[in-house]
Amino acid sequence: MIPRLLAPYLERDAAYYPVLTLTGPRQSGKTTLARAAFPLHTHVSLEAPDQRRFAHDDPRGFLAHLSGPVILDEIQHAPELLSYIQVAVDEDATPGRFVLTGSHNLLLMSQVAQTLAGRTAVLRLLPFSRAELERHGQSEPGDPAGLFENGATGLDLWDAVRTGFYPRIHDRGVPPEVWLPDYVQTYLERDVRTLANIGDLTLFDRFLALSAGRAAQLLNYSALAADCGIAVDTARRWHSILETSFIVFVLRPHHRNFNKRIVRTPKLFFYDTGLLCHLLGIRERAQLVSHPLRGAVFENYVVAEVAKAYLHHRLPPPLSFWRDRAGHEVDLLVDAGDRLHAVEIKSGQTIDGDMLGGLRWWNHLTGGAPGHATLVYGGAERQVRDGMAVRPWFAI
Prior knowledge:
Layout: H1 7-13, E1 19-23, H2 30-37, E2 42-45, H3 49-57, H4 59-64, E3 70-73, H5 81-91, E4 98-102, H6 106-115, E5 120-124, H7 130-133, H8 157-163, H9 167-171, H10 176-195, H11 201-212, H12 221-228, H13 232-244, E6 248-251, E7 267-270, H14 273-279, H15 285-289, H16 294-311, E8 319-323, E9 329-335, E10 340-346, H17 357-366, E11 373-377, E12 383-385, E13 388-392
Parallel strand pairs: 1-4, 1-5, 2-3, 3-4, 10-11, 11-13
Antiparallel strand pairs: 6-7, 8-9, 9-10, 12-13
């Protein structure tokens, strides 16, 4: 088992809370992590029809027959259990009694907020980060500049991005071109039907592919709906399904208005670049290297890796971007509380002075110090240009 950065936080919080809630996409390793962290807990999967039926028909009896602490997998299949768990932990608040895992985010969290507020720790496990996959340590994020000071790599950039980071691909050695189509099909048949009454899954599949074509771009629901042939409200609802099941996330524009002409539309990102490449029809490394969306895929990789660095250390990612209507943009802003750290993301492997143009403009606009800016690019060298750090793709 490849060690997960979230593991010590899961074990720590088990000493404080009677309930731990571990969420994340399907096949991100939640069950493996929970069982490794708590080997003495009874394990019950609510994916099993008989267990799910027992929990639904007789929740009191279901909980009563469990002896000792328990891991309940895929709790979203029996959300009514949460109210009974609340009663149980109010009567006996022994830390670590229940470990709940779930593959649905907003659906699950609405139930948790109503029934387990103050009684549960909520942790999010995404697919491997690059640091986890290579078994490198990664410090808890502090100074944003430190996010980009990690060590060497044995991976090829474009192979790594195309393959993605789902554990099953790496643990079992399953080629991504074999595993990812099955993952998408399972997702469509199970999660989408669970979350919404969608009759035409072929149309939703098209919506998913069209969303991939907009990765690292502004999320325009009207254009997306028109291209897919659906209503705008339907596009919004279907996008919420993708967010709920941890397929995509959005990066919000930074709220500060420096020149009164900022763009307020969020940008769309996928949690895993392997899945993103699959949806774009990219099956080989050479296709990605020459693909017109290579830059967007690389930007998606960097933003997702930074998000993992925070989430896998049990911290909310303080991330945003900034763009004005004249086309000036900073790809990523990391809020350090007393300052913003600007990050420019370029897929090229050769450092070009023009790559720093956006950061120079940002520093001039905001009066920021060059030391509060980093260029992440597709090459391997580390440099300092005009007081700004230039870091390779594997430095995250």
